[in-house]
Every structure is written in structure tokens, then in C-alpha cells.
Amino acid sequence: MSKPSDVTRADFDRYFVPTYAPTEFIPARGEGARVWDTADKEYIDLAGGIAVTSVGHCHPAVVKALTDQASTLWHVSNLHMTEPALRLAKKLVDATFADRVFFCNSGAEANEGALKMARRRAVNVHGEGKDEIIAFTNSFHGRTFFTVTTGGQPKYSEGFGPRPGAVTHLPFNDIDALKAAVSDKTCAIVVEPLQGEGGVNPATPEFLKAARELCDQFDALLVFDEVQTGNGRTGSLFAYEQTGVVPDILSTAKGMGNGFPIGAVLAKEEPASHMTPGTHGTTYGGNPLACAVAEAVFDIISSEDVLAGVKERGEILKTALENINRECLCFREVRGQGLLIGCELSAEFEGKAGALVGLLAKHGVLALVAGPNTLRLAPPLTISGEELAEGINRTSRAVANFVSA
Fold first, then answer.
1. Which residues make up the binding site for pyridoxal 5'-phosphate (predicted)?
2. Staple partner for 84: which of 2, 291, 322, 384, CB 3.0–4.6 Å?
């Protein structure tokens, strides 16, 4: 049972900057893929805190890693290096294409660092004229001014005055447009292998291969934003492993810390070498608490059994959603990879993804949107068969009510 709460949803309206529109209920505790609110109502978590709680709520190994580290060392300045950070960096390099790692606190910071690395490298090697970053419509790369400008959704960047320059947006998956745009001025192409916030849209293998070839041709860097798709979300440690394309730089965060703030830039030796002492930094990035947690998460999600389970449960969930759609005819398409799945609403229900998420919550399911027309599901990678089945049953009932309303 949850303890009686001395706070209410009304306190948000009184005290917070109104950048969010939170639910009326307040989550109070969680275990595995289940969450209970302050009224002790239970929810199946098919949102994962926006693909963050990769190994579920209060996983014993992660709780132990945090509490053990909390009783040992919390923080030192970046004049020093700690054992958890050193261990985590080695594991990430050994498991990926990368030679170097930079730790930070979030996906936005990871993308900020990745883009700064690309610009810095271009300036050092080619001079000031090579500064163009190519990104894509419906992309999302974070909320700093640089990353929100790079993201291909104007609604997030408009209304804040002049934006950083030399950022070009192209249609996603349009190889001809990409070939026409890349030039000697291009320093980087930044792309999500599977767009999350923009609608759970997968990049085609041909598109990513063309991006790689153009970067090689024009001495630009290929940057993969794997903030959402990384850390086992698609059924491999990182999504690039399933594309046949290797980037020069990769950003990641979200599921990396299971909710404890941490992000990382993974890079090949050459671009990383241009980030010398003083060129970039962070006060909290790579702190021992975050790295101890992230190492425990890494050890869980990098196992073959867990990654195979992600693919298996992803297919179960996608098939179930397709079956629901055959009965209710509310989705134009069910798409995604692993346990990142988007259900694009049919024309009859256009713009009502938020309403569907609200109805799912009433039926005891936590879910997400990916724009106004797409339901997004990103449950813990370790969700049990029982939890998944219950979540599917509740989702089926909610969707049936949604279409009949």
C-alpha cells in the first residue's frame, strides 16, 4: 500500500513552471512493469518513462548498485576519475564501434556534445567554412537551443528568437534529397535510426547506407542519435548493429540509467581527438552514482537472453496490436522495432493520440504519444510475459472503448 500523500496534483498548478500538462494521478511506487499511484491504483507501464526504465522499476541489481555506491562515493570534480566511470567506459568501448566515451547527464547533452565534436573537428581539419549540419524532418534531438534547432520539428524551436545557423533539414528517408544537399560545406549528418518522438519511423537501410557513403565522400561525420533506440530498446545493444552501417559518433541516454540521469557520446578515435582539455565539459556528467547504476543496467541489458527477449516480446506486442486493429480498425499502421512500437491512427481518429493515452490510463495502462497521430509504446525490456499479457488485455479494452465513443 502507498503511504498517504501530503501533496496533490493542484500543487503542480501552484508551484511549477507550466511547461508540462501532467496527469491528474500521481505515480507513487513501482515494481517491474507495474506502477501504483497515490490512490493505490495499479497500472501496467507500457511507456517506460519515455523508453527510460529499461530494466523496470526498482530492479534489485540496480537498487543495490545505487545504494552500494551511495554509501561509498557520490561526487568528485572532473579533475578526477572514478572507478565506476572507468569500468563503464571500458564496457561501452569493448561492446561497440567506439574508441572513446564522454559522459553527460541527458540525451540533449549527449547530442549537444556530439554536434560540438563534429563542428570542432571540421573547423580544425577544414577551417571555418565547413559547418553545415544536415538533419531531417520530424527528428528530435533534445531541448537545448542547438539540439532543438537541429531537430526537425519547428514547434519546439520557434518563439525563442534567432536560432543557431548552418542547420539544414531534409525529408526523412529521401535519398535523392540527401544526395542533392550534401556538399563540401557539410560537417555532419545526424539521424535517428528509428525516429521516436517524430512518430516511430524507421530509417531504411538504403537511406542510412547513402548517408554513410556521402559522409565518406565529403569528409563529414555520420552521427547516430540513439538516445531512444540504444541500450537494448530495439533488440540489439544499439540499433546501428542491425543496419549494416557504422556511425562515427553515437549519442545515447534514456534507458542507459533506468531513470538515473546519465548520457554518453561514443566516438571513433579521430573525431574524439579534437575535443582536447577545456573544449567541453560537465559538472555532474560521469559521476560515480550514475555510472554505477548504468554499469548495472548495462550488465543486464547486454545479455543475449535479454536482447533476444526484447525481440520476442516486441513481436508479441506488435502482433497483438495488429489483432486489436483488425477488430477496431483504428490504426493506419503498426510499426517499430523491438520494444519501441508506434501505432499511427487512421484518418477517422486523426489528432486523437493524446485522448487515447488518457483513456488507456483510465484502464490501467501507461502509454505515450509520438506526435498527435501516433500511440507510442516503450515498456521495460524486462517486462514479464504476465505483465505484457495483462497490458495487452487492458489496451484491447481501452481501444474498443475509444472507437465506440
1. 107-108, 140, 225-228, 283
2. 291
